[in-house]
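Notes from the 1:1 (GR / supervisor)

We went over the backlog. Supervisor wanted to see one worked example end to end before approving the batch request, so GR pasted a single chain during the call. The sequence is below; no edits were made to it. Supervisor asked that the structure be written out right there so they could see what the output format looks like.
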Amino acid sequence: MSLDGNAETAETAAEEGLPPLRPDAVIVEAQTKRGKICRLVDNTATVAVTELEELLQELIAQDLFQPLGLSSAGGSSIRIGAPQSGHIQLGETLYRLIVIDHEARLEPF
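Structure output shown during the call:
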């Protein structure tokens, strides 16, 4: 049985301990420099679509959508596709930004 990209992303998100997507989550999509589809999911449903589209283009320009090998601080193993996370301020609001392969998610901070 094959899974579509959304099912695979949901499965990966669950494995990474991310909160489930809200029913009203806002999703914008684009193509990476390598032609792969990537998306930005606003799981707060509070950011304007135009602002999400601009942020997605910035993330693409920074080449963040690709499987990366990361190790935990002090770890001796590398985990391919490990999520990257940080914080981003849009307007007056601070959000958690999580990037897993070809998906970026905005979560409440």
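Supervisor's comment: The radius of gyration is 14 Å.
Batch request approved.
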